[in-house]
Amino acid sequence: MSLKNQSEQVNWRDGGTPVSSLFDDPYFSPTDGLAETRHVFLDGNGLPGRFGDGFRIAELGFGTGLNLLATLIAWRRAGTEGRLSYTSFEAFPMPAADMDRALAAFPELRAEAEPLLTAWADGKRRFAIGSVDVAVIVGDARVTLPDWSHRADAWFLDGFSPAKNPELWSEDLMAEVARHSAPGGTFATYTAAGFVRRGLQTAGFQVERTKGYGHKRHMSRGVLDGAR
Questions:
Q1: Element (H, E) at 221
Q2: Which of 30, 119, 156, 228 has the most Cβ atoms closer than 10 angstroms to its Cβ?
Q3: Which residues, 6 or more positions from 220, have their beta carbon under 8 angstroms from its beta carbon?
Q4: Per residue in 109-146, pLDDT tens?
Q5: What is the pLDDT of residues 76-95, one digit of tens each?
Q6: CB under 8 Å to 107, separation ≥6 — which residues?
Q7: Which CATH code fits 34-224?
Q8: 1 has a pLDDT exceeding 60
Q9: Do 165 and 191 touch, CB atoms closer than 8 A?
Q10: Where are the domains of the chain?
Q11: pLDDT tens readout for residues 48-85
């Protein structure tokens, strides 16, 4: 699929699960999207145990903002002093009304969601929520990530299914993920697709296939090989 001249439209499955019209894939698990986020992206990256002042998270696929909000709660509960940086690369930003509707499925996130929803509706893509500095970089990550001037301590790889959105899982892009990772940087993703794991290994990550969330048997996580 070409990533040019596309705009996201959200369909709703069973009245409550947001599904991308471009990729025909749900934004989060219909079973419990928040639990999935915590299992895959937080636990998969060893968070919140690794948090510290200046910790930097980067993400492929901002979607509903669910991963950001789960991270924000984990950061606050950990009582970490200082600031956290959260950068997400998103080609097709979700309309504000759809984001509001999607996040309404998680009442425990409402207090954290309000500042996100306000900023999003105002068209802001760089903003702060408490001590978390957020930047959503809009555009094709194959173009925007190479120009990013930072390196992440942890990556959330959360594009749509590799079978439906292969552009976001290419070997070249995984090499950019590695190039933009700090020493000892980690990644976690819900997918265990072979070509994704091989691409990450080629890029320099030590890759582990581990237990997935819910009905998914496996997911992937890894750490950047210090010898690279």
A1: strand 218-224
A2: 156
A3: 187, 188, 189, 191, 192, 196, 197, 200, 207, 208, 209, 210
A4: 999 999 999 999 999 999 999 999 999 999 999 999 99
A5: 999 999 999 999 999 999 99
A6: none
A7: 3.40.50.150
A8: no
A9: no
A10: 34-224
A11: 999 999 999 999 999 999 999 999 999 999 999 999 99
